[in-house]
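Hi all, long-time lurker, first post. I run a small reading group and we've been trying to get comfortable going from sequence to structure in the token notation. Rather than ask abstract questions, I figured I'd post a concrete chain and ask someone more experienced to write out its structure so we can walk through it together at our next meeting. Sequence below, copied exactly:
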Amino acid sequence: MREHVYSEKSRLHGTGLFAARKIKKGEYIGSYDGPIARKNGMYVLWVYEDENAEPYGISGRNLLRYLNHSKKPNAEFDGADLYALKSIKTDAEITFDYVESDF
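-- Answer (accepted) --
Happy to help. Here is the structure in token form:
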């Protein structure tokens, strides 16, 4: 995953996730990975497999835990997999919308 992204101080909030190279629209960036979470907390992503299933939480342990929120995101989750919504320039911060996501 480090060939795609890295973390460093963010102007948005604390630590952020940044593109290590240009990422094309629709390109797979990585999967949110970690143990199953039993309750909500920092770095927990809630995933909905389908609209009839109960969501489950993933307690992030990889670099994707540093994603920050934006009302105009450049990435989105499909389950636990993150994809670029548009082309992302090298060194640009990668963001997703907490409200519109599976969170």
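A couple of things your group might point at:
The chain has a mean pLDDT of 92.
The first strand starts at residue 5 and ends at 9.
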